[in-house]
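Hello forum,

I keep getting stuck at the same step: I have a sequence, I want structure tokens, and every attempt I make locally crashes halfway through. Rather than fight my setup again tonight, could one of you with a working pipeline run this one for me? It's a single chain of 702 residues.
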Amino acid sequence: ASVFMNKNYKISPGTAYPIGTRLKRGGVNFSIFSRHATEVELFLYDSSTSLEPFQVIPLTAKVHKTFYSWHVHVHDLPAGTWFTWRMDGPNNTSESGLRFDKEKHLLDPWARAVSDKLWLRDSACLSGDNQQTSMRNLVVDESYDWEGDTPYVLKSENAIIYELHVGGFTQHHASGVKNPGSFAGLIEKIPYLKALGITHVELLPVMAFDEQDVPKGTADLGLKNYWGYSTHSFFSPHPGYCVTPEQGTHLQEFRDLVKALHKAEIGVIMDVVFNHTSEAGEDGPVINFRGMGSDIFYHLEASDKSKYRDYTGCGNTVNANHPVVANFIISCLEYWVREMHVDGFRFDLASALARGENGAVLHDPPVLWGIELSEQLAKTKLIAEAWDAAGLYQVGSFPGYRWGEWNGKYRDSMRRFIRGDQGIVAEVATRLCASSDLYQHQGLLPVNSINFITCHDGFTLNDLVSYNGKHNLANGEDNRDGCNNSLSYNCGVEGETDDATILALRKKQAKNSIALLLLSQGVPMLLAGDEVLNSQQGNNNGYCQDNELTWFDWSLTEENADMLHFVQQMIVLRKRHKSLMRRRFLTGEKVDGRHLPDIQWHGVELDKPQWLEHDAQVLAFTLAAVGDQEADVHVILNMSEAEWVMQLPAVEDREWHLAINTALKSPQDTVPPARQTPLGHENYLVQARSIVVFEGWEGKAV
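Reply #2:
Ran it on my machine without issues. Output:
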């Protein structure tokens, strides 16, 4: 029998602050925002699947409303109580944008844990009572033993980010974990992450999201929202990644993951989606914000406020610069740092947050500056996807100074260079140097450039070198979805092949991509699975594919162990060269009394970069060591179809040693210092479509 059965808890008015639900000595204080509600009810349930509440508490404005908050204290109510809200109020959508529906059950946007066990999205899209198919919030005890853990602080120039999907990383049967697809499952794979050498994981959305938010044709195929860019409860870890969410273990399970990653000296960056919510457009579901104050939380059309402005491609756009909404976003981020020890955030379609009233782009958006200047976020990494779906593109001009940016221009330049485009070596050189053209004139730093060649959105690395076009029919949208211009090259055959020559070229091209990324100034980001050549069979928009198409196939760690070894060794090489992770932009001049300029550029011949030659496909450069025990680095990038005999620069008291050659088979393609021998000559034959790296040590390599 339930501990709640037949029990009516005493109530008192409670307090407006703090907003949300707080377990206190003597009971629970509930406080929720709604400026225009006229009646509010609180429903209490003894489980996440109880169809009927054990108590309904009506609130009156006279007793339970202070300014724009509705509040009540429920005496002796324990943690473990599930609840929903109902609100009545104006519903003149075209004039005011208000959409109150007194029969709809709402989530508390500030709640710490949520269950979607009963959830039916379709019923929330229709008018009428959805009590038996609504989501539920939980009263939680937020205490936790962090065992001395604190957020992980690492200088951004030393960071190597690894983007992964919590569910997909361990869901595959070959993962061998106890709880696949969960925060706990990811904990079991920390030794793998540690051995790979990355410094931070960037988790695709882990705030509670609506898995049922997909187009009808996609849903009819039994597919769901897999990536998670459909948030509804921004303070709650996603229940689908918890082992026992119905027991309300959301906070504990996520914190266990963060604490375990920190023990392994791996930071946690969360991909967050504040540009839109899962409530979609005018025909979308009523979950929380829409039923509390749609006019405040969303951008609405001025002429007809029943319609939502859509700058995100997802039906709605969060009105992020309204004071209430800006406070919600900033306090949410501070919560994840303060209470969950998160180390950074990547903001999906962050440019949507730069829009003010009427959708106009603001020069100094209050919410973005509020995030940047928050003391609680001062040591937190901030990364923007600096564009939105309505054409606003702010790479190189995103408001603020601390923000790193997903550098889409880097991605595109490197993809073109790798596939063999001619005459772009000058642009490639700029991207290799952290895109100084975008950032330096603004007083920004190399760390403002987050470099990537692949990410969750688009081809995997294996597919980038295996497909010329997208193959997204499995998504149920007749191949209309996904990017149409992937700048890819299939190496001669579309898709899978047994041709050994093509397979060898693809592997070399994949290694070239990894090498380029890890030889670039700025902050590199790898896509999980690329290190073992994971494939999605040419699907470049796997957002709805929660199956083996997108899951990390752990059998590939053995099948493609040579590629995994190459990536590990490239990371090791990057870490031993501060010259690859500089805090300031390169100048081409001698600094700190060094024997070489910080960088020298070359073409097919030394000191003759082919900046203006329309057919150039060869670029080389020499980096001076920064530390006393560090080697100089000489890099040759040959993306042409020809092999070249390349001269190496003479450096006083230094000898060149081969460290990387992507044209060689494993394990000869990487040579650690302990196995290196002096080259003994000044020329080196560089194979077609390959990258070679030399280290210049004083005397014997160490």
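The radius of gyration is 27 Å. If your local run keeps crashing, start a new thread with the error log.
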